[in-house]
Design a protein that fits this description.
Blueprint lengths: L2 E2 L5 E4 L7 H4 L9 E6 L7 H11 L7 E6 L4 E6 L17 E7 L6 H21 L13 E4 H6 L10 H6 L4 H10 L30 H8 L1 E3 L5 E2 L2 E5 L2 E5 L1 H4 L9 H7 L1 E2 L3 E4 L2 E4 L3 E8 L4 E6 L2 E6 H6 L1
Parallel strand pairs: 2-5, 3-6, 3-7, 4-6
Antiparallel strand pairs: 1-2, 4-5, 8-15, 9-14, 10-11, 11-12, 13-14, 15-16, 16-17
C-alpha cells in the first residue's frame, strides 16, 4: 500500500524487511516522537543498491525510508523499506525514539534530479512529523520531531556522523534553507535558488571564448567531453557495494598520498562496466559525454559513466 505525503510525492511501500529489528530485539517501543534525517554517504550506490544491502546487513544498520533518484523509472521516488518505529540508524540512545529514519541516496545524476529528490525528502520528512504529532521545526532542541543525524551526534545522542548537511550543501542547500523548506513544504522556498551549473554556450566556429582563466570554465563552454578514445593508466582496482571499479590517478587528479582515499573512490572511482580495459589501461566506452557538474575548487567536472556520477580532472579532460 502506498501513502501520499503531498500532491507530488507518493511514499511507496517496498519492504525489504517484513519486521523491525529494533522492535524484534525488544529495544524500542511506542511512543516514538522523532523523525531522523540522514544521507547515505555513498555516491556510487543507487536506491535499490542501498535497499538490497540493508536487507543483508540490517543487524549492523537499518532505516525505515529511503529517498532519491530511481534510474529505472527516471524520476525521484520515496520508499518505505521496513516497518516504522525504531532503527539502528543514529548510533546512540535516540535510535529507539525514531518513528521514521530517512536516508537520502547520494547517487544523484544532476541538479534537476536533485531538486526533485530533495522535494521528496522534504515531503517524506514532513509526513513523518505529522504522524508523530510534531511540528515541522528542525533541530529545535526539544528532542521531538525533525532531527538531523549531525544534531543527534553533536548533542550526545548519535555517532560521529554529521549527515545529511554536507551532502545537501554540495547541491546548494544550507541548514537554514533545509529548515525553511521543512517549514514551508516547498523545496528552495523563499529567495533561495537552485545552484545550477551555468548552461554551456556554444563556441563560435568551434573556438573557445577568450579570457578563460581555468579549465573548468573552459569545459563549461562546451558542456561535454570528447575523450578521443584516449587510454589512461589504471592504478588501483576494488569492489564497493558490489560494483567493480577502477581508479586512475591521472583522471582523478590524485596527487597526494600513496593510495586513493575512501572519498576519492566514492567520487572518482570508475565502474568497469563503463570502460574498455587492456592490462593496466582503460578507455571509456562512451567517447562523448555530457558534463553534469562543475567544481572550480577541485578543478573537476562530473560525467555519467554506466549510470554513476564520476568526477574527473578538468585539465585532463580538456587535453583528451
Amino acid at each position: 500500500m502506498n501513502t501520499t505525503a503531498n500532491a507530488d510525492t507518493v511514499i511507496q511501500k517496498r519492504h525489504v524487511l517484513s519486521f523491525n529489528p529494533a522492535q524484534a530485539a525488544g529495544l524500542t517501543r511506542a511512543p516514538w516522537n522523532q523523525v531522523h534525517l540522514h544521507s547515505t554517504a555513498n555516491t556510487r550506490a543507487t536506491m535499490q543498491d542501498e535497499a538490497t544491502y540493508m536487507s543483508r546487513s540490517y543487524n549492523n544498520a537499518n532505516y525505515t525510508n529511503i529517498v532519491g533518484w530511481n534510474y529505472k523509472t527516471g524520476k525521484a521516488e520515496s520508499w518505505q523499506i521496513m516497518p516504522k518505529g525504531g532503527a539502528y540508524d543514529l548510533g546512540g540512545d535516540w535510535n529507539w525514539d525514531g518513528w521514521t529514519s530517512i536516508e537520502f541516496s547520494e547517487n544523484i545524476p544532476n541538479q534537476k534530479a536533485f531538486k526533485q529528490a530533495y522535494q521528496a525528502y522534504i515531503d517524506t520528512a514532513r509526513q513523518g512529523a505529522r504522524e508523530v504529532g510534531a511540528n515541522h521545526a528542525l533541530d529545535d532542541g526539544t528532542g521531538i520531531g525533525l532531527i538531523t543525524h549531525g544534531s543527534a551526534s553533536a548533542t550526545g545522542h548519535g555517532s560521529d556522523h554529521n549527515d545529511p548537511l554536507p551532502f545537501l550543501a554540495r547541491w546548494g542547500v544550507s541548514k537554514a534553507q533545509l529548515a525553511r523548506d521543512l517549514r514551508t513544504g516547498v523545496a528552495f522556498s523563499g529567495t533561495a535558488q537552485v545552484n545550477k551549473p551555468a548552461q554551456a554556450n556554444k563556441p563560435v566556429m568551434g573556438k573557445p571564448k577568450p579570457n578563460v582563466k581555468n579549465d573548468v570554465d573552459y569545459m563549461r563552454q562546451y558542456g561535454e567531453v570528447i575523450w578521443n578514445k584516449k587510454w589512461f593508466t589504471i592504478n588501483e582496482t576494488t569492489k564497493i557495494s558490489g560494483i567493480k571499479q577502477a581508479f586512475s590517478y591521472n583522471l582523478a587528479g590524485h596527487h597526494v598520498g600513496k593510495y586513493a582515499t575512501k572519498d576519492e573512490w566514492l567520487n572518482n572511482g570508475i565502474p568497469v562496466d563503463g570502460i574498455n580495459r587492456q592490462g593496466n589501461r582503460l578507455q571509456f566506452k562512451q567517447n562523448r559525454m555530457k558534463i553534469v557538474g562543475y567544481d572550480k575548487k577541485t578543478n573537476a567536472i562530473a560525467v555519467n559513466v554506466s549510470g554513476y556520477t564520476i568526477w574527473v580532472d578538468a585539465t585532463v579532460a580538456r587535453k583528451a
